[in-house]
Design goal:
The chain contains nine helices and 21 strands. The chain has 380 residues and is α+β, with helices and mostly antiparallel strands. It has two domains: 257 residues, Aminopeptidase, CATH 3.40.630; 112 residues, Alpha-Beta Plaits (2-Layer Sandwich), CATH 3.30.70. It binds zinc ion.
Amino acid sequence: MVNRERLIRTTQELIQIPSPTGEEREIGKYVKAELEAEGINAERDEVGNVYAVVGEGERSIMLNAHLDTVPPQGYKEDPYGGIVKGNKIIGLGASDCKSGVASMLEIARSVNENELGGRLILAFSVAEEGVLKGKKYPKGSMYAVERYSADGCVVLEPTMYNGVPRISGGCRGRMILEIDVKGKSAHSSRPKSGKNAIEEAMKLVKRLKDHELLKGRYFGDALEETLSIVRIESNSPATNIIPSLCSITVDYRTLPGREGVKEEIKRAVRDSGVKADVRIPYFSPGYVLDAKSRFLQIFYESVKRSFDMNPKLMVALGRADSEYFYRKEIPAVIFGPGENDQCHKPDEYVLIPGMVKATNTVLGFVKSFLGRETDRVGST
Ligand SMILES: [Zn+2]
């Protein structure tokens, strides 16, 4: 069992260290120092990720959570207060994802190295909420998968729903499209002598909205794609000038594993008959684990045992770093102590009872997965 008070205190202390994307240095130092205080060697890499390995052996499991947060917005409480009110800890990142970071630290402290017949790899990563600029990879976790392989990975993003756990065995994909629609500038008193790029863009938006969004079923639930226009702007410098350029940004969430969707969407733009340049600055196709995946089954049983209920299995609507592990053939689930609906909300909180239970669940899973030969569950 984990130490409840220490877990709460760690979550509070993590909240008290501001760490918006790009400013993870201080929190990285804290995490490293906390591990070293337990006699665990910890290391920071060139982008600021912190790693530690506990135990020895062939078999391995990786835990991953991100150190960064989005910037605070709309807070009434102090975003960096980390105060406890009733059964909540309040502050920026309480659920997304500092309680996950605290869980990992608490698991590292609670696990007895001698009980493990394998390696517990801890990867605390930077730049999950944003991107690394001018580096080899845009996301911190992409460095973690380059450094370590594992037999499975748990990403501790929030998957609690009012204290009730769910497990994500995959995530939807995400594509960002930047489209420059071309027109021809003219005086707005004679619009017909030009071509209004905004009006052209409207035709294209209509075509994109008509693009067939797929529906699927995963773990028994319906899931669908969504396509949203998130930004639109023209280059018109004055109110009496017809714009020659209109830029649209689209956020497209795909069903898992839709590798071919890039070509499909480019075709839709071509078919609209509108003159446009398309860029895809980001595409991550998402993934889903086979429901029969051994790793998923073992993890599911751990949650079931710990909470004494059948947890819901699902595909996360948002993209998650677990995808990078999956791509390196490491089966990855998303399961963490935070409240899922609290992500990026003002006065974000985490519920203490669920946080403690979820942390004990992951600890129990680690112990059974990496246990010594005799008491190991699910050895292959
Ligand atoms: Zn997160």
